[in-house]
Amino acid sequence: MYALIETIHAAGLLTCFALLSTSRIGACIRWLSFQGILFGMVPLIIPDDGLTTRTLLMAGGSLVLKGIAFPWILLKLRARANYNREVQPFVSFVMSILCGILILSLSVWLTLQMKPALIHAPFVLLNSSIFLIFVGLFLMISRRNALMQVIGYLVLENGIFVFGVITVVGTPLLVELGVLLDAFVGVFVMGIAIYHITREFGSMDVDRLTELRG
Amino acid sequence: MPASGSLALPVCALILAPMLLGIVNRTKAVIAGRRGPPLLQPYWDIAKSLRRGAVYGEVTTWLFRLGPVVGLATLAAALLVTPFGGVRAPVSFSGDPIVLVGLLALGRFATVLAALDTGSSFEGMGASREVHFAALAEPALLLALATLARVTGSFALTPVYQAITIGAWADALPTFALVAMTLLVITLVENTRIPVDDPATHLELTMIHEVMVLDHSGPDLGLIQYAAALKVWIVGALLVGLVTPIRSGSVWLDGAAMLVGMVLLAGVIGMIESAMARYRLAQVPQFIVAAATLSAVAFIIRLI
Amino acid sequence: MYAGPSIVAVLVLALAGALSCLVLRRPHHVLMTIVGVSAVELLLALNIWTAALGPKGFVTAADQWFYIDAFSSFHIVVLTLVFVLSSAFASIYFTHEAGAFTVYVARRFGVLWLGAQSAMLLVLVSNNLGIMWVGMEATTLLTAFLISLHPSRLSLEAMWKYLIICSIGIAFAFMGTLLAAASIQSDGGVGADALFWTKLGSAEAHLDPTLMKFAFVFVLVGYGTKAGLAPIHSWLPDAHSQAPAPVSAMFSGFLLNTALYCIMRFVPPVQHALGQDFTSGLLIVFGTVSILVAAGFIVFQRDAKRLLAYHSVEHMGIITLGYALGPLGCFAALFHTLNHSVCKSLAFFAVGRLGQRYGSHEMISIAGALRADRLWGVSLLISLLALIGVAPFSIFMSEYQLLRAAIGAGAWVTLVLFLAASGVVFVSALRHMIDMAFGTASRHDRGGRDGKLAVPIVVAAAGLLVVLGVWMPLPLYDAIASAAAVLAGRP
User: Do A14 and B297 touch (CB under 8 A)?
Assistant: First the structure.
């Protein structure tokens, strides 16, 4: 079981680095989908009491949403754009990867800080969740393309999802489903926003959104 | 088994290394549907170069002549600390991974100096590219070796590779897999293969390594070709030693497994060269940094 | 009476109102609906308020999933009050945009407006910190399109920034919520009510101090983003300046307070686990920084709505500061919440209408407002004077109480910084205001009649500001005092 967890951890880290270094948005969406499926499996392998309706619902919901629905919406949106590359991010790809390594070190340090208080959570997954959260944040602030920002948001969501699954065993299902629904509506709303932005600006580059200052 | 291996290992390496280049070229030829040169062609090429006389430009100094000699000498020295999978290296001491990387760097330094000594802008450009990529590849190699050292708990190459068994793989699967990927990329980078550089092209604008040695001729060129073969052997041995975790204790069995592995590696390089296109120069650093990232991730995973 | 059912009723009514807007055929009807629904909501809220202030001290419904004490009921009343005022103003404001305010825009507005109201109510009534978070996230998603009700480049830019920044903030808040839940976890004993703030805050909950520390930082940064606390306020001026005036009024008047409310719900549990100093210290830092940053930006503003937006940052800072300064400070903060909400709504109403008449929100354009438009010019004058803390108005009173709380708590550095920033704000905002109110009337003056509701709105809001400035009714005093007592950990 531990080898499986460790493999998920390593593969998850690699998807993040792939997202940090890929310019083609289509490829990024596929990586995101893979990542969603990867971490969607976490509820199935973590709890001690085996498979329950609850874990199945959570895993199923997140697999369907993050593995299929979100990528599908994002691919639809990408099809509307004239070009589908993150041409020149605010932070270059090589620098992004190096920042990724820094973030990874930071996340390991944070995990070491938190771990004593969270005895139930497996260390490596705690580390992946914190890493995902920061990588998501980094993607959101370092990319020009609106779709890449949404991708960053979803990476962050993945991190929080994993964190929730491994640390909090007792939250009511209602809350968790609410969270998933929120993520779904969030992507939907961002999708509509991007739709309007592409129509108005003829581009998904958010660095055109610079008229409001001060 | 003696504490350190005999000199038979480096001698075998000196004899067999050019064969690897032959296998790479043969694989490429077969995939392209040609018969290709004979497997021993690299030996003939080296011998032919060694027989010829050398021509030196008027502006070159002793640095230019020193380059190929130092390049070969450092690699020959590096062979002494390179274990061949389960087969021990003749020399082993704590910290020898750093010596290995340092020797590779020294050889490169000599080659770069020789290239700059010609005063040609082409060769200077090649030297600059070579150093640029090496600056990225070296930390990657060091990180990869450091990760292996971390997993196996010793910091000398021979014991590290002794400890890479099937059991160790089962324990540290993600880590070893990541390091192996890094080492594969480093094999391609260090030996200037596609997708980093194309050893077959002679277009100055796209070359990296070849453009540095354009001015060398005769025996110098022969030494350089031989050194290139040795480098494939050394870096390849690091990779193959990791991915063929057969440690029976018998030198013959381990050595045979490694040889099969080396042949396969040469075949894989040939297939990669046939299947991929060369990256644009701007993409190469990204490729190498990505490789370094893999071993950094592996290293950090092991810190936990 | 019927307080429990009233809780369900406020939620259901807002939702039903939102849905019914989908089928209305005329913009006029949509506006009527939101005014009507908001008015009924206010009555229900008052009913809940009286019940929550009764001997029991709380109202609950749905098996404790809804739980309202003095603190939340006070916020509910302020919320519904702001909504009644803003809805009534919306009916005036959008009548003057008849061309752009088609039936589709009207339906969208109605649905999102009442939807946002129900989401905010959900935040205020729910006992479960998870559901509270869901409500908060829902407000972000629902209000995003209110900003770009009329899609233009600027409003889309503001909307995108709002969406992205607040989504990040909300994600952090969720992380904090999870950490809070995990902190009980480590002592075992988990039930479906693990995330109830009534449970977390009670003495028997054993919370892990390390995790609660992390949790509070995440919550403060996360909800603080939504509350517009500096330095994470960057979405706020953009969103406030680009949204239609009623929406800006609702943002400033209540959306920000909802986020602060969420932060304050975490304070009692954290204080249980870590003592008073940790939360107070953080709140003081965030509050003071917000006041200082806002003061800096107010000096250089050209756009009237951005000016008001930075005033919101400043006042959110003041309220946060108040929460950190002990019981007296909490009282001042709550009183200030009410005053600021009413006053800021009035200010946005005035700027919104004047902006329509002048065709611009640039302060240079809005000159001589007093002469050009008597009603809204006077409103602008009153609300801006109140905002910067001029004496007869109630904001002066709450800021004065805050000063006393600061002196009582011995927070001298904070006190000095607060006074300095207030001085800067006072002078610069006064300058802006004099130009707008008394300058020579600009020629871009378009006529337009305000409906019957205009005068009552202004009289109600301005009257409240004046009356509360000179006389505090005893029931209100009791209500605020018991709300402040909740924060001090005494139910």
Answer: yes
Output the CA angle A55-A178-A146, nearest 5 degrees. 105
Comparing CB atoms, the residue among C152, C182, C195 nearest residue A167 is C182
Give yes or no for B296 touching A (CB within 8 A): yes
C234 in helix, strand or coil?
A: coil
Give the whole-angstrom CA distance, residue B94 versus residue B113: 30
Question: How close C177 gets to chain A, by Cα (Å)?
Answer: 10
The DSSP-derived string for chain A is -HHHHHHHHHHHHHHHHHHHH--BHHHHHHHHHHHHHHHHTHHHHS-TT---HHHHHHHHHHIIIIIIIHHHHHHHHHHHSS--B--S-SS-HHHHHHHHHHHHHHHHHHHHHHGGG-SSS-HHHHHHHHHHHHHHHHHHHH--BHHHHHHHHHHHHHHHHHHHHHH-S-S-HHHHHHHHHHHHHHHHHHHHHHHHHHHHHSS-BGGG------
The residue extents of the domains of chain B are 8-303
Q: Give the C-alpha distances (Å, rounded to integers) separating A20 from A72, A88, A152, C64, C342.
A: 21, 13, 10, 45, 47
Element (H, E) at C28: helix C27-52
ipTM: 0.88
pTM of the predicted structure, to 2 decimals: 0.83
All residues of chain C having their beta carbon less than 8 Å from the beta carbon of residue A118 are 182, 185-186, 211
Degrees (nearest 5) of the Cα angle C482, C487, C491? Answer: 55
Amino acid symbol at C116: A
Distance from CA of A71 to the nearest CA of C (A): 18
Enumerate long-range contacts of B142-145, CB under 8 Å, 24 or more apart.
Answer: B142/B97, B142/B98, B142/B101, B143/B182, B143/B292, B143/B295, B143/B296, B143/B299, B144/B179, B144/B182, B144/B183, B144/B186, B144/B295, B144/B298, B145/B97, B145/B100, B145/B101, B145/B238
The domain segmentation of chain A, as residue ranges, is 2-205
Decide if B173 touches A, using CB distance below 8 A: yes
Q: Please tell me the distance from the alpha carbon of residue C268 to that of residue C261, in angstroms, as a whole number.
A: 12
3-class DSSP state for residue C126?
strand
Query: Would the CB atoms of A14 and B286 count as touching at under 8 Å?
Result: no
**Contact indicator for B131, B63 with CB cutoff of 8 Å:** no
Specify the amino acid at residue A104. L
Nearest C-alpha neighbor of C450 from the set C87, C89, C29, C26 = C89
* C-beta separation of B20 from B236 below 8 A: yes
Tell whether the torsion through CA atoms of B160, B161, B162 and B165 is positive or negative: positive
- Which tokens in the block code for residue B168? 């160790």
List the subunits that have 3+ CB pairs under 8 angstroms with B: A
8 Å CB contact of A97 and B294: no
CA geometry: angle C54, C58, C59, nearest 5 deg:
100
Q: Mind listing the pLDDT tens digit of every residue in chain C (491 residues)?
A: 678 888 999 999 999 999 999 998 888 899 999 999 999 999 999 999 999 888 888 888 888 889 998 999 999 999 999 999 999 999 999 988 878 888 999 999 999 999 999 999 999 999 988 889 989 989 998 999 999 888 888 888 899 989 989 988 988 898 898 888 888 755 555 566 677 888 887 766 678 888 888 899 999 999 999 999 988 888 999 999 999 999 999 999 899 999 999 999 999 888 888 888 899 999 999 999 999 999 999 998 889 999 999 999 999 999 999 999 988 999 999 999 999 999 999 999 999 998 888 888 888 888 888 888 888 999 999 999 999 988 889 999 999 999 999 998 888 999 999 999 999 999 998 888 888 888 777 666 666 677 788 899 999 999 999 999 998 999 999 999 999 988 876 54
**Do B300 and A108 make contact, defined as CB atoms within 8 angstroms?**
yes
Cis ω before C231 (30° cut-off from 0): yes
